[in-house]
Amino acid sequence: MELIQRYLTKSPYWRKNQDPKALQYQEYQKHGPKGAMLHSIGCPQPSAMVLIESWDDPNYTKACIHGFIDADTGTVYQTMPFNYRAPHAGGKATDTHIGIEMCEPDCIRYTSGSSFTCSNVPRAREMVRRTYLAAVELFAQICTEYGWDPLEDGVIISHREGYERGIASNHGDPEHLWRGLGLGYTMDTFREDVKAKMTNIDVLRPGDKGEKVQRLQRILKLLGYYDGEIDGSYGPKTTEAVGAFQAANCLDPDGVAGPKTLEALRKAKVFADVPTDAWYADEVTEAAALGLMEGIGGGLFAPDRPIARGELAAVVVRLYEILNK
Predict the structure, then answer these.
(1) How far, CA to CA in Å, does 324 sit from each of 288, 319, 320?
(2) Do β-strands 115-118 and 108-112 pair in parallel, antiparallel, or remain unpaired?
(3) What is the pTM of this model?
């Protein structure tokens, strides 16, 4: 995550935070925030700087915010110190919560309220995933700084949840955006992902891409749950395979590879002839996940079989490619 300080020093709320007579602002600074609220801007504007330049005005009195997340790059712009009071919630949450706005795709058009149409769904989803992941990292950093547990009630809330609690104005963000684009994100998944980020535990979910997804696909394929390509894209087939594995292992079959699912996969018997308590079991599973070794077929690894020079050369080449990506 790239975090850039770009304070709204021309904002009237910047001046109020520095005014010793503005008691409400001084009280906030004295006691500090108690949580953080996640917003989505509610207009088709991916650029954080466009909004910053608009809000950094002595005549802009509609609201203020502690940070924007750019939808084009995922860059976080901190616009107010977190211990400054910034009217962002339209209610009492302004006195208790840090406010962070996620920018939105330029290919959506609002029709009424929180309803919108989208001219390029794949592009919009990619931009919203980018802001979601950056928000997870930012909120994990904030929670770590203040010693908060993101799963504790009221620590991390959305604008919509703030309204339902009677401490924010009537808005539906950001859940309306996630729901409208069919991304499957919720505030519950957000809080869980923040917690996982704080404890350095991976969470892989639909829409993710990369080497970690490839490793997941390889293990699922060796276990017989996945029959798609090892392409590193967490699509419908991967989601279905994860769900099937979860169901077979008495886990919630939500198709998301969270800590419990990843731990169960680590402990799974990938090869029938490699005991899970063997001293080399974890290494064999890791080699299979990296694509270094695939066994001899039929779910077998043949751990006592001497390796041929050609096989060893192939392993070395694959390992070299991995280390030099």
Answers:
(1) 19, 9, 6
(2) antiparallel
(3) 0.71
